User: Which sequence fits this backbone?
């Protein structure tokens, strides 16, 4: 009888693991899977407010960790003429518009004039704004490539003068983390980025990181993100100084 009870328990546990794994796969698919009929279309390229920096301007790395998570890091070139409070203000007011040469654009679309598609405040913070506790919906296609399309809604774990942290959890399991850290330097702001894709622990870590993660966020997509992020962070030099100087009472 003991053997049968254990066998039955094992079967239940295995079924639960398979069900959890399937739900996790479906959940991550809703976050990162590419090229679906219902996805928002890529947009025509907008004006560039300045030249994009090349990925060679930054120190980047791409590593598969012992846990089989994908780790991406960037130590960006100095963002000249920009300060950490300006960067915090930018993310607090990312849903606003700006005028360029007589035309009004969503700020998000000029931040990366080729890859960005849509940004929205999916859920407000407990104080009613975009700070810690809010959820950002971010839609973009790295290198304007439909194969590198992402539509994700992420929890704002941190937003202050030190930086921004965005996290995605599925059934309590963290599968995505993006951290940007700001600092003050003599000519402007330092900016370091760190992205981790995959589960660090849990009963489906092996399946998730070895099968799901490479399918929905491949190493090639990771390399495209490194270039994308260098380009958008470099664009701050051309957007933020004048925009921040002319900020209004409508901004946070």
Assistant:
């Amino acid at each position: 009888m003991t053997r049968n009870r254990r066998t039955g328990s094992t079967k239940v546990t295995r079924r639960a693991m398979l069900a959890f794994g399937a739900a996790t796969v479906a959940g991550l698919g809703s976050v990162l899977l590419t090229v679906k009929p219902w996805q928002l279309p890529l947009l025509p390229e907008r004006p560039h407010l300045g030249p994009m920096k090349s990925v060679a301007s930054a120190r980047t790395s791409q590593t598969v960790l012992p846990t089989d998570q994908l780790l991406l890091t960037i130590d960006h070139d100095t963002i000249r003429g920009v300060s950490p409070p300006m960067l915090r203000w930018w993310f607090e007011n990312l849903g606003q518009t700006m005028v360029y040469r007589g035309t009004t654009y969503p700020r998000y679309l000029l931040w990366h004039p080729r890859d960005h598609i849509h940004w929205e405040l999916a859920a407000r913070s407990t104080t009613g704004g975009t700070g810690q506790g809010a959820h950002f919906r971010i839609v973009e296609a790295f290198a304007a490539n439909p194969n590198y399309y992402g539509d994700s809604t992420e929890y704002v774990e941190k937003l202050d003068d030190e930086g921004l942290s965005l996290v995605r959890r599925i059934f309590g399991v963290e599968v995505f983390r993006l951290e940007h850290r700001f600092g003050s330097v003599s000519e402007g702001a330092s900016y370091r980025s760190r992205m981790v894709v995959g589960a660090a622990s849990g009963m489906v870590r092996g399946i998730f990181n070895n099968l799901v993660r490479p399918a929905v966020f491949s190493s090639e997509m990771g390399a495209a993100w490194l270039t994308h992020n260098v380009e958008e962070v470099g664009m701050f030099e051309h957007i933020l100084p004048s925009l921040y100087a002319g900020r209004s009472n409508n901004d946070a």
